[in-house]
Specification:
With about 210 residues, the protein is mainly alpha-helical. About 70% of the residues lie in helices and about 0% in strands.
Length: about 210
């Protein structure tokens, strides 16, 4: 019998490593949210037209390396979702988690590539490519999680907020995060902060499902 609070059907067993990966995702999500708030309130050390704003080139490089590591934690959560057996089998689950994982992996690598623009103004040399990479990778994560979220809903093993968290995390990319990213710097950082908190909630759900 499923334990109370896991919202899984009787007879389903979630591998222990899924729970550990979920915990990693939860921690990465919380730390990502803290990072977003930090960047939103940190006093600008360079002019606002610099790509590294609000950080100096050196500080920007350190933060980008951190974001690479942090995104790997989110990727662990997506991989765990694919193996948690809480999605209805089919293309929606396979394509959804696969696309989301590829998108997050590309997003992580893009955080490192962005270091090459640390001394550039915005827009400037190379920033157009970075915009494209960030856009494609983020959209891939969003579409992938929407597909995976539909599969979660179809399966019905996660009920209540757990049954919605994957779908909401995907939808949030399109409304309101994408419009916010085109707005003021602080608004963009706050939107990303909320997205990271949604990943933290998803990671928590995966962790609880295996415990």
């Amino acid at each position: 019998m499923a334990t109370a609070g896991t919202d899984t059907s009787p007879g389903t067993a979630v591998p222990a490593w899924v729970g550990r990966a979920g915990l990693v995702c939860a921690v990465a999500g919380v730390l990502g949210a803290v990072s977003g708030i930090f960047l939103a309130v940190y006093p600008g050390q360079v002019s606002e037209d610099m790509y590294s704003y609000p950080l100096t080139a050196g500080g920007f490089s350190v933060v980008q390396i951190w974001f690479f590591v942090q995104h790997l934690g989110l990727l662990a959560g997506i991989v765990a979702l694919a193996r948690a057996e809480i999605m209805a089998p089919g293309r929606s689950a396979r394509w959804g988690t696969g696309l989301a994982a590829l998108g997050m992996a590309l997003l992580a690598v893009t955080e490192l590539i962005a270091i090459t623009a640390r001394d550039s103004t915005y827009p400037g040399d190379g920033t157009g490519l970075l915009d494209a990479l960030y856009g494609v990778s983020t959209l891939a994560v969003g579409v992938g999680l929407i597909l995976a979220g539909i599969a979660v809903r179809r399966q019905g093993r996660w009920r209540g907020w757990r049954g919605l968290v994957v779908l909401v995390t995907g939808i949030f990319v399109f409304v309101p995060m994408m419009p916010a990213l085109m707005g003021p710097f602080v608004l963009a950082r706050l939107a990303i902060t909320v997205w990271m908190l949604l990943f933290a909630v998803l990671g928590h759900a995966l962790w609880k499902a295996a415990n």
